[in-house]
Amino acid sequence: MSEAVHLDDIAAALLMRIIAQSPESELVGAVLPNGTYQLGDSIVSGKRHVTGMVPGNSIATAHNHPGGNPDFSADDVENADQIQRTAYLGAGQNPALAELRRYDPGFTETYRGQDGKKRSHGEAVLAQFPMDEFRAYLMRKLLDRAADDPRGLMR
Ligand SMILES: [Zn+2]
Predict the structure, then answer these.
(1) CATH of the domain at 22
(2) Model pTM?
(3) CA distance 26 to 23
(4) From the CA of 85, how far away is ligand 1's center (Å)?
(5) Over the stretch 80-119, which tens digit does the pLDDT of each residue have?
């Protein structure tokens, strides 16, 4: 259980970075086996959504839904099922207020849309607030400074 909570914490930080960097378009990222994370490519459309845009050794994927839809789409569920990795979703354009959801292939409940394809509401993620990513976001947003600027948040 503590391991799952830890993965949620990492994913919450990754999603904050994703939304901070790409609030108006979908972007995918991956959690790596050593607990770090990295951004992948922008999501253009359709099936290539997540598969093939993250390293093969990733242990989880994350992407954002700028429009605010908190459900995992048919493509999202299909991709997660195909690569058998936990998928995270951040809905909304505000990195600090986005709704975070989690989908675990084979565990999380799914439903069928009118087209017969599986979708999922996912499960709510209760994670530690990613303070370092939030600080980096504020540095860029408010002060136009790099995350490692020695002046920090001071004027
Ligand atoms: Zn999606």
Answers:
(1) 3.40.140.10
(2) 0.86
(3) 8
(4) 14
(5) 998 899 999 999 999 999 999 999 999 999 999 999 999 9
